[in-house]
Amino acid sequence: MQAFLITLAFSIIFSALIVVLAHKKQWFLNQHDLCGVQKFHHQPTPHIGGLAVFLSFCIGYFLLPDLQAILLPLLLVSTPVFIIGLVEDFSAKIYPLWRLIFIFISLSVSFFYFDIGISSLGFAWTDSLLSYPLIGLAFTLLVVGGAVNALNVIDGYNGLMSGYAILASLAMAFVAYQLGDSLILQLNLLLIAATLGFFLLNFPLGKLFMGDGGAYFIGFMFSMIGLVFVSRHDMLSNWFVLALLMYPMYELLFSIYRKKIINGTLASEPDGYHLHMLIHKLVVANNSQGDKTMNNSKTSPFLWALSLVSIIPALFWYDNKLVLIGWACVFMVVYTIIYRRIARKYT
């Protein structure tokens, strides 16, 4: 427990240092920070909170020697993904193709060198296809790459992405505890500690934002830990990890469908009609005289609650793929109904 408290302390220190330097020295601030349809804050704010998460997580590596054999490969494969995201946070000039290339490099190394990937979905015909390395790699790239980008998509309001990531990591840690897997339990607690320090500076006052680097790192690391967890227990299904990731993954898929199929625009084109943005409009409409920062922060708890529709069942049916698939479908129905009811007012 001492190692996790130290990791949390360093995450707080690094996060606070970024905020102080931004305030005193105007470091880490982007002149275009307030421009764009997906900008809902009102003061220039540093977007490199992910640096605090990454550095504090790395410190955890040195504090937990028993985990170093698995932590080192995870850090090695996640670093390229983090770096390309961090460069985007500083420059805002990285093309999406370059981000995909870096994600592909990281996943290829993890798949072929460290044997971390998706090789089973629990059905004979899918597992037969996934047994071919190139198909397994392609599917791993699709799912994990989707998860990485999905967490970045939901990183829109104070505490939203980091709060969700903490909930999902707590869920995986709980199941690891039930199965007596101390390694996976400690990995999740380390990720929680590194994220929580940032969260305290981000929610509710919005002093610091995660940025692409942090969202990519957390999404990639969480996915890798989940894949390692599944590989260690025959009773576990990859559907368990997908159930934990259901909220951001469906947000991404629904967004692509809405933009590409319904609106006929590019899937990568930013817009203001993600569910969290519509809920923010609803919050503002019901509290138009409220503080803008508080209205921003009030948006996140609604989405945390929504994510529990798939997270909580995963705690109880982690070993039953059919029930997990059923709850994933329930989540998608609930999400779609909520979206359509709110969208009628604002689209």
UniProtKB/TrEMBL annotation:
Kindly indicate whether the keyword Coiled coil belongs to this entry: no
Q: Which residues bind Mg(2+)?
A: 152, 212
Main localisation: membrane
An example of a Gene Ontology BP annotation on this entry? cell wall organization
Instruction: State the UniProt keywords alphabetically.
Output: Cell membrane, Magnesium, Membrane, Metal-binding, Transferase, Transmembrane, Transmembrane helix
Provide the topology term for how it sits in the membrane: Multi-pass membrane protein
Membrane-crossing ranges are 6-23, 44-64, 70-88, 100-125, 131-151, 158-177, 183-201, 213-230, 236-257, 302-318, 324-342
Q: Where is the signal peptide?
A: none
Q: Name one Pfam family in it.
A: Glycos_transf_4
The keyword Metal-binding belongs to this UniProt entry's keyword annotation: yes
Q: Which InterPro entries match?
A: Glycosyl_transferase_4
Q: Which cofactor does it need?
A: Mg(2+)
| Molecular function in Gene Ontology | metal ion binding; phosphotransferase activity, for other substituted phosphate groups
Q: Where in the cell is it found?
A: Cell membrane
* GO CC terms, sorted: plasma membrane
Name of the featured protein: Undecaprenyl-phosphatealpha-N-acetylglucosaminyl transferase
